[in-house]
Design a protein that fits this description.
Length: 123
């Protein structure tokens, strides 16, 4: 499971770097997740990531962080289908309407979190 966490962590870092380099491109990428298939794919990814975090927690450098983020990921993955396509589209539209600085800021958070998770999973 630690391998899966490391993979997701590197993916987070890559997406964060892309968002800093090209905020407009990240917005376009995010819009690909609109629609029913995006909701179900996003839910599945969050649930798999949550399980991987939870199962990897005991062997990580930061087990409490892994357990907490795993729980958040599982709950958000389970809730995503209930949010629905229309509400998810509104959230994505709100997020994509923010400034480039805002998107770059969130991209920096993704890089930092991905790096922390990668380091912690490499125990």
């Amino acid at each position: 499971m630690a391998f899966l966490v490391a993979f997701f962590s590197l993916l987070m870092v890559a997406i964060g770097l892309y968002g800093i380099a090209n905020p407009v491109g990240l917005v376009s990428f995010t819009r690909l997740w609109q629609g029913q298939s995006g909701v179900w794919t996003g839910a599945a990814i969050r649930i798999v990531f949550g399980i991987a975090l939870w199962r990897s927690a005991p062997s990580s450098h930061t087990p409490v962080v892994f357990e907490f983020l795993g729980l958040i990921s599982l709950v958000s993955g389970a809730a995503l289908p209930f949010i629905g396509v229309e509400r998810l589209t509104k959230i994505i539209s709100w997020w994509s309407g923010r400034s480039s600085a805002f998107i770059r800021g969130w991209s920096a958070v993704a890089i930092a979190l991905g790096a922390l998770l990668f380091w912690s999973a490499a125990a």
